[in-house]
Design a protein that fits this description.
The complex is a heterotetramer. Chain A is mainly alpha-helical. In chain A, 68% of the residues lie in helices and 0% in strands. The termini of chain A are far apart. Chain B contains 3 helices and no strands. Chain B is flat and about 40 Å long. Chain D is mainly alpha-helical. Chain D folds into 2 domains: 34 residues; 172 residues, no CATH class. In chain D, a hairpin with a 5-residue loop joins β1 and β2. The interface between A and B is large, with 49 and 41 residues.
């Protein structure tokens, strides 16, 4: 019995991140309004970013910025040895700066497309747009 | 990084995400999406990812919401679902 | 400077894209020449790289001077050494061939068009040459975003088709990113070769299995494999002819290269074919893709949509070939990447010329096109012969390897699907020849100016004829390609 | 459609949760990801690049190539929004509303484009026009310089505190967007015109890729800032730190240009007459 509680304590964060991803994924597939789908795309991307950042999290680690380490020019040997276990893993943070910027770029393009579609069909509902295409 | 705070913010994030999808007004969805991004930025700040939190605050909560509101002004607030 | 070729290959078009974007604001007529120079330099570097790979074996290049697992590294081996020149030549020929039609469609925004064109080219090159899993995601996004921009400026239904492409493309890219995340959490590294080194003890872990499944599904969505292909026909049909003749030949082939790279370098054949026994079901998926692609192509009433469904069938060829798991099948798949890129380019350029002159690509408006535009139609027929797989042309040889691979591995349903699709292609292309050659040319279909419809402009026609001739030249040199390059591209694990 | 969506979502969710069984616990220091690459980054950053903020060091130096393509993504998003939405209408004598500020009378005049509004006597009215509230305009006019000052601090101080090119660039961009929202798009276009935003975008990313190409010419690999020490009076390690600073400035300029460009296209749907 205790190992089930142990896994739950150790893993519940991942399960919540996956439910967030699935909320976004569901919105992309099932929503009828185009802007709602764009919101779903963004939720899906942000949830994956959350998953990546949580890979690097460490209990008892501080933020990945080296305090009170004054580098004297090039050969600034730190006054005391830097132990990796004190600091949080910086690599997922670097990757996720890229992913956030990519999600904003995709958002900008998607909204421009939505404006173009609205300019032609005067609606954002997918079923109404398909109906108007069939009329032509 | 106390896990209670972590759990509460996660709950807010999930509620904001569900709200942003189910609300029947696009401007409301844009505002709720801004709240979702800001909650996400809080979560990362708690987890120690300060650079990512700063970027999400300025890029995700800030500019994304402005783009959404601008796009909603240029199209329509009406949604059927 | 020669040891910097992998960096120069990518940096010259990247810098050229920013110069073109600035030139778009200052003096628009410089944009085209800068783009041509940038693509020629890249083509030169890619060919030189291929020759160096054939001499020295795998070339690696450390970006920023850092050793691989810590920094990003580029690897050029026989597989991407072959695909790089194909991308450069296809993009260069298409750039020159579609100069006139681009100037007519986008006179004010020509700087932006050429910027997106060169950036997409850079993204595709980067996807093929990179050795870092996350770097591949960023380049995937560049190719995707510029692709949305290029496609959306087409006809009246183009924005909606592009938005659907955006949804499916983002889901595919996010699945790939999630797969890399699952790999990172259990291996701790991002460099492909490094992951392959760490993976063996983890082969039975569920996370690696799920990572493989998600990466594959993400890549299949991006290449338009049959059940996940819904976005492809509309996106490529309603795009401007210059963009569709760049994206159709390259985007799906590059994604198939990514699939082969993931299967054979990151997850090593021992895992893919040894531990997992999914290869039979994937071959069945590709059989369904081939059959449905061929059948749906029969139902179309316009030329471009028919060609997009043929592309979906070709994707089924290559996925099936790679998953057969034997030497001939993989040789056929790699050869088909090259041949199919050139065939699709030839056919789409011909359609571009038809659309440039006849303003429409529906079957009803194409009647009598042979009389008016003989050279374009002869090039189209050459492309058709190669897609059907008639011996002198290159299409036959790659199909030949695929069929022999299918027989050797016992997947007879794959062989039947290949033959069925070839027969359907015969019907498809003879139907077009029947419309364009035998039916008389009606003026009413093209309004009052029906008289002076003549051949496409020379700047568009000569590249098309070169590509059509290239189909047969490639056919002759197939044995050299296989003997010198593809033979070494196949990893040891494949019997 | 909704049922199919639910089924697909449910299956994918189960597959993903099925895999979490093999994950290391959340946040445990011994997980493979936390002690393979990151140990070198944390321990060696000070000696390699003398940059205390490890994330900025990894972002711009160890994996600088990723960040260059990320800036290219933002640049291409700006170009795509311009390419899709921008509509160039010739300056016809198009009808518009004018408001005489002193008396408050509104006039409907043909050829509104040709009148110059620098004298401030007349104001153009758009259909989304809200009277420019005195409080909002003066507050924003006072606030914007300090936002820009803070943004420059964020870019320059990326080495020592959280921040860097992206965050600073977005804040710079949003200061101009704030100007466009509080006043109207035309005032922000007088500050940074459409051509200015486009060129800023291209110049910013060119600085980034150009620095890399410069290191190439100086003999190092692409983006190897150590090679800059040949032309700078610095030793290779501080040359790396200086290289990171140049690159961050390039990223800041590119992101600023791109944000303004996307906003002005999205908010005016490409016609550049009335913003939000």
């Amino acid at each position: 019995m205790p190992d089930i509680i142990q896994t739950i304590i150790g893993k519940y964060n991942y399960w919540i991140y996956i439910t967030l991803m699935m909320i976004g994924f569901y919105a992309i597939i099932a929503k009828n309004n185009l802007v709602k789908k764009i919101i779903g795309v963004n939720i899906f991307q942000t949830a994956i970013i959350l998953f990546y950042v949580s890979i690097g999290a460490k209990w008892g680690g501080t933020i990945p910025i080296l305090q009170n380490v004054h580098g004297e020019g090039g050969a600034g040997a730190a006054t005391h040895a830097i132990k990796a276990v004190d600091y949080i893993n910086p690599l997922p943070h670097v990757l996720m700066l890229t992913a956030i910027v990519v999600s904003v770029a995709t958002l900008g393009v998607a909204l421009s497309l939505a404006i173009l579609i609205y300019r032609r069909y005067k609606t954002l509902e997918e079923d109404e747009i398909l109906a108007r295409i069939r009329e032509k | 990084m106390t896990w209670e705070l972590d759990l509460i913010i996660l709950a807010f994030v999930v509620i904001a995400a569900l709200g942003a999808i189910t609300i029947r007004d696009l401007l409301g969805a844009a505002i709720l999406f801004g709240a979702y991004s800001f909650m996400m930025c809080l979560l990362w700040a708690i987890m120690g990812a300060v650079d990512v939190a700063f970027t999400e605050a300025s890029v995700g909560a800030g500019v994304s919401t402005v783009f959404f509101v601008a796009a909603v002004f240029r199209t329509t607030r009406r949604t059927k679902d | 400077m020669t040891q910097h070729y992998p960096a120069l290959l990518l940096v010259t078009p990247l810098l050229a894209a920013f110069v073109i974007s600035a030139a778009g604001w200052i003096k628009r007529k410089w944009c085209f020449p800068i783009a041509v120079v940038a693509l020629t330099v890249s083509a030169w570097c890619s060919v030189a790289l291929l020759l160096r790979v054939m001499k020295e074996g795998v070339i690696h290049y450390y970006l920023g001077g850092w050793a691989p697992p810590w920094g990003i590294a580029y690897y050029v081996d026989y597989l991407n050494g072959l695909v790089l020149p194909v991308i450069c030549i296809v993009a260069l020929v298409n750039l020159i061939a579609s100069k006139r039609s681009v100037e007519d469609q986008f006179d004010e925004k020509i700087g932006a068009f050429y910027t997106l064109y060169v950036l997409m080219f850079t993204g595709l090159l980067g996807i093929v040459i990179t050795g870092d899993a996350f770097n591949l995601y960023v380049l995937l996004e560049i190719a995707a975003l510029t692709g949305y921009g290029l496609i959306a400026m087409g006809e009246e239904r183009a924005p909606l088709a592009t938005l659907n492409y955006l949804y499916m493309g983002t889901i595919g890219a996010c699945f790939y990113l999630l797969g890399v995340g699952y790999l990172y959490i259990v291996t701790g590294s991002l460099n492909m070769v490094d992951i392959a080194r760490i993976l063996p003890p983890l082969y039975d872990s569920r996370a690696v299995l799920t990572a493989f499944v998600i990466c594959m599904v993400g890549v299949w969505i991006k290449m338009g494999l049959f059940p996940l292909h819904a976005w492809l026909p509309n996106a490529y049909t309603y795009a401007p002819s210059a963009s569709s003749s760049l994206i159709a030949p390259l985007m799906t082939k590059v994604m198939i290269y990514v699939m082969i790279r993931l299967m054979f370098t990151v997850f090593t054949p021992y895992y893919v074919f040894g531990i997992l026994d999914v290869s039979d079901s994937v071959v069945w998926i590709s059989v369904i893709a081939i059959v449905m692609g061929a059948v749906l192509a029969l139902q179309q009433n316009n030329l471009k949509k028919m060609l997009t469904y043929i592309i979906i069938a070709e994707v089924g060829y290559m996925v099936g070939g790679a998953w057969l798991g034997n030497r001939d099948g993989l040789t056929g798949a790699i050869l088909h990447i090259m041949n199919d890129a050139v065939m699709t380019l030839c056919v789409f350029l011909a359609v571009g010329n038809l659309v440039y002159k006849l303003k429409s690509y529906a079957f009803a408006d194409l009647s009598g096109a042979f009389g008016k535009m003989p050279f374009t139609m002869w090039a189209f027929v050459a492309g058709g012969l190669s897609i059907i797989g008639i011996p002198p042309s290159c299409g036959f040889f790659s199909k030949w390897y695929l069929i022999s691979g299918a027989i050797k591995s016992g997947h007879y349903e794959f062989m039947v699907a290949l033959l069925f699709s070839s027969l359907v292609n015969v019907i498809l292309f003879f139907r077009i020849i029947e419309i364009t050659y035998f039916e008389p040319f009606e003026d009413h279909a093209h309004g009052h100016h029906g008289k002076n419809i003549d051949e496409a402009p020379l700047s568009a026609l000569i590249p098309l004829l070169i590509v059509a001739a290239g189909l047969f030249v490639l056919g002759f040199f197939t044995s050299d390609f296989v003997r010198l390059i593809i033979q070494f591209a196949i990893p040891k694990g494949i019997v | 459609m909704k049922i199919i969506g639910l089924i697909i979502v449910g299956l994918t969710g189960l597959l993903l949760i099925y895999a979490t069984g093999d994950f290391p616990d959340w946040g445990d220091p011994a997980s493979p990801a936390n002690n393979y690459l990151s140990t070198r980054y944390i321990e060696k950053t000070m000696e390699d690049t003398s940059v205390p903020n490890i994330v900025t060091a990894v972002l711009a130096d160890y994996r600088g190539f990723d960040t260059m393509f990320e800036t290219t993504v933002i640049f291409s998003a700006g170009v795509v929004c311009f390419f899709l939405l921008r509509v160039f209408e010739k300056k016809t004598d198009e009808e518009g509303l004018l408001r005489h500020n002193a008396t408050g009378i509104t006039l409907r005049i043909k050829g509104v484009e040709k009148i110059s509004y620098s004298t401030g006597e007349f104001d153009r009215i758009d259909n989304l026009w809200t009277p420019q509230d005195l409080i909002i305009t003066t507050a924003c006019r006072l606030l914007i310089p300090f936002i820009q000052l803070f943004a420059l601090y964020v870019i320059a101080h990326g080495h020592y505190s959280p921040g860097g090119g992206f965050q600073g660039g977005v804040i710079l961009g949003s200061s101009i967007i704030l100007l466009a929202i509080s006043h109207d798009l035309r005032t922000s276009l007088t500050r940074i015109s459409e051509k200015g935003a486009g060129l800023l975008c291209a110049v910013g990313v060119f600085i980034y890729a150009g620095t890399g190409a410069l290191c190439l010419l100086l003999g190092g690999n692409f983006l190897d800032y150590g090679a800059l020490s040949k032309i700078l009076p610095l030793d290779p390690v501080s040359a790396r730190s200086f290289g990171i600073l140049i690159v961050e400035v390039g990223v800041g300029i590119a992101v600023m240009g791109s944000m303004i460009w996307i906003y002005s296209n999205v908010s005016s749907a490409g016609r550049y007459r009335e913003g939000l």
